[in-house]
## 1
Amino acid sequence: MDPNLAYDLSEFGHYGYDPGTGASDPDFPVQDQYTGTWAMYEPPDDDPGVGELLAKHVINAIIKPMVYLSNGETAGVTEGESVTFTPHVVTGGTPPYIYEWSTNKDNAGWTTQGSGSSWTFNTISGDAGTYAVRCVATDSLSESGEVTWDDFVVSTP
C-alpha cells in the first residue's frame, strides 16, 4: 500500500501538507494543495465491518489472510431459525484456504463448530444468548488470520 494514500485528516491535513501556505484549518484540512480526484473505497457487499477490519489488521495484510464475515447483515435470530456465516478473504495469504469455526456463548469459552467454506448456525430451543462467532482462515503456507463477529443474539420466541 502506498503510504501517501494512508493518512488521517488531522489538523495538518494530508501527506503533502505545506506549512508555508499558512496555518492549518481543521475545517478545510487539505488547503487546496492536492489537485485530483478522490474516490471513497466501497467494501465488498457494502459491509461496514470491512473498514473496521482493515483498521485493525493492515500490518498483517500482506502475509496473513485478512478475512471478514458476512451473513446477510443479520444481527440475530430467534431459537429455531438458521443463519449462514460466510468468510471472505480480502487480501493476503496464499490460496487455498481452510476455515475453522467456533462460537463463544455469553463469554463462557470457545466451542469448536467445525470447518468449511461457510457455517450454518442451526439454532434450537435452549440456544438463547449472545454469541461471538469466530472464523480462522489458514492458507497453504500455514499462515492464519481470524475474524470474530461479536454480539450475535439468539432470542427466545
## 2
Amino acid sequence: MHQRALQIREQALGTGHPQVATLLNDLALLAEEQGKYEQAEPLYQWALTIREQQLGPEHPDMAESLNNLADLYIEQGKYEQAGTLCEQALRILKQALGAEHPEVAYPLRHLADLYMEQGKYEQAEPLYRQALRIWEQALGPEHPQVAHPLNNLAALYTAQGKYEQAELLFQRALTLREQRFGQHHPAIAQTLHDLAIFYQKQGNLSEAIALTERALQILSLALGDAHPKTVATRALYTQLVQERGAFATA
C-alpha cells in the first residue's frame, strides 16, 4: 500500500516533492521494524536528501529523518554515525520548536540509547530522565510513549545493580504497554526481555526463563523467527536454560 501511494505521489508531484519524502520515510520505518536494515537505510537517506533540498537543512522534518536514520544505525552498532545524527536532530528541534517540545524527546531518547549501548550509563541516565519528563508533561504520565524511557531507564538501573528502582520502572512500563497495545505486541516483548535480564542478574532463573519464553512467542508470531529481535531473545533463552542446567548440576 505504501509502494502504491508512493507511485501515485511521484507521478502527480514529482520524485523530489516533500510528500514523496514522507512516504519514503514510512517505507523505511516499515522495513526497519521488519529487521530489513539494508532496505531501510537507502530509503531514509533518500527521504533525507529530498527534505534537505526542498525544505532546507534546518527544517524540523529534517530532524525526523536524521533521528530515524540514527535509530537504524544504533540497531546496527554504527554508534559514531548515530551520535552525529542525534546531536544534529537535537540542535534543529531545539532551535525550531524549543527545548521542551515533545519532538525534542526523540533525539534525547536515541542519544540515551546510544550511550546505553556503549555502557556510558552516567551520560545516558539524565537524557532518559529528560525525555521522560518532557513526554509526561506534554502527553500525560499514562501515554504509551512514556514507556520507552521508563523501560530503558529500568534496564540502565539493572546494569548498575539498582534493582529496587529498576523493578518499579519495569512494572510501570509493562502496564502502560499492555494497556495500550494488548498482550501480543512486540513492544511488550521488549519489556519482557529486559525484565528477564533483571531476574537473571538476581539469580531468579525460573522467572527469567518464563518471561523470555513469553517474549519469544510474541516476537516469533509478530516478526518471524529470523528477525534480529527474535534471534536476540532466543539467544537469551538459550543462555538462561544453560545457566539453570549448570546450576542444577552444581
## 3
Amino acid sequence: MNNEQLAREIHKAVENANYESTPQEITVNIRKDTKKIPLPPTIMVFQAAAYLCSTILNASTNRILMYFFSKSGYENYIGIDVKTLMEELTLSKPTVVKGLKDLEKNHILVKYKNVNDSRRHDYFINPITAWRGNSFTRNEAIKKIKSGDSPNQLDLFNIPNEKKSALKPNSDF
C-alpha cells in the first residue's frame, strides 16, 4: 500500500468513526515496517572491469581474481597468502606470484603495507573493479585511495576511469 492509499484509508476510517455527542480528537499512529530480506554474501563486479579482465588477463590470473572475489571480506579486504592460493587453486608458486603481479600491475588489486608486519602486504580489490559493501563505504574507499600515496591505482589497465564508462565489448584498444 502506498502513502496515498494509506491516507485515503485513514480518512475513511475517521469519517466513519462513531462519535458520541460531540466529535473527539482522534490520534492516528502509523507504523510502517519494511522487512529486509536477508541476502547471501554478494559482491558487485562492474562491467567495464569484467570485460577488461576477461579479454586481457590470462586464465590463471583470472582464476586468482575469481577466487579473490569469492573470498573478499566487507570493503574488499583479502587476507590470503601465496601458499593458500597455491593449495586452493592447485597452481604452482611461480604462476600464483605472476598472477598477483599482473593483478597489481593492472591495478585490479590495491596493495598496502601491513600495519603490524612490514614484511607483509594487505590486498584489497580495487573498488572500481568490484565492491562488497554499500555505496557510501565504496565512495569513501575511492576517496581514500585518491588521496593516498598511489592515486593512480584506481586506473584499471592504466585506462582513466572516465574512459572506462565508454567501453563496450566491441571497442578496440
